[in-house]
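2024-03-11 09:14:02 DEBUG pipeline.ingest accepted 1 chain
2024-03-11 09:14:02 DEBUG pipeline.ingest length=227
2024-03-11 09:14:03 DEBUG pipeline.predict start
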Amino acid sequence: MKRRVLVVDDEPQFLRALSTALRAAGYDVETAATGAEALTAAGLNPPDAIILDLLLPDRSGREVCIELRRWSEAPIVLISAVGDEGEKVAALDAGADDYVTKPFAVGELLARLRAVLRRARSGGEPVLEVGVIRIDLDKSSVSVDGSPVHLTPHEFRILRVLAQNEGKLMTHRAILRDVWGPAYGDESNYLHVYVSQLRRKLEPDPGRPRYLLTEPGAGYRLVSPAT
């Protein structure tokens, strides 16, 4: 059964080109040109995933994300332009799952789409593996290439959040609130200290991280590097 993707963008030429590429990749596609049309379409015929332009004529992508997350768990991939960083981070905090920046290669967008759909299908697993990093959630233990690694409680919680969302950009605010609670959200420099400590313990070369990647001005991703 084909996966259904709702594409939301107000540029007709871009919308046609992207729809054609998605259909060629095996997806069923529905389109919308405004936030209102997107919300109506998602409500009438719930999609498996949503590709959402950050700036729409009637409302922002962040506002659309907030409304969608009240009743939909469909993964959302944002399309943003260079210079939209503040609004992009706000939309990610509001529930978007990932983003690509214009101009982008269709292959990059398809890879992000496959990743969010894969995460949406996977259930909670007691043991997570990201490359050579193995995280046992029940035992709160971590090993790298078979060797045990000691993490502090906060380091483990940060790693757990990232591993449970492998490949997904997690904003500073999302990590801080998940690990320390809702009163936190703006202490990104505080988080940076813990991420640096994690890299020293997990990365072969902490100065050139392959697993725990920084998205400047936004947050972090945990990825399995290509071999």
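2024-03-11 09:14:41 DEBUG pipeline.report The first strand starts at residue 4 and ends at 8.
2024-03-11 09:14:41 DEBUG pipeline.predict end
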